Amino acid sequence: MSSTREKGLIVSFGEMLIDFVPTESGVSLAESPGFLKAPGGAPANVAIAVTRLGGRSAFVGKLGGDEFGHMLAGILRENGVDDTGVSFDKGARTALAFVTLRSDGEREFMFYRNPSADMLLRPDELNLELIRSAKVFHYGSISLITEPCRSAHLKAMEVAKEAGALLSYDPNLREPLWPSPEEARKQIMSVWDKAEIIKVSDVELEFLTENKTIDDESAMSLWHPNLKLLLVTLGEDGCRYYTKKFHGAVQTFNVNAVDTTGAGDSFVGAFLSKIVDDQSVLEEEKKLRKVLRFANACGAITTTKKGAIPALPSDSEALSFIKDNQRRSNNPFKSKKLRFLYCSNCS
Question: From which residue to which does any coiled coil extend (predicted)?
Answer without folding.
Answer: none
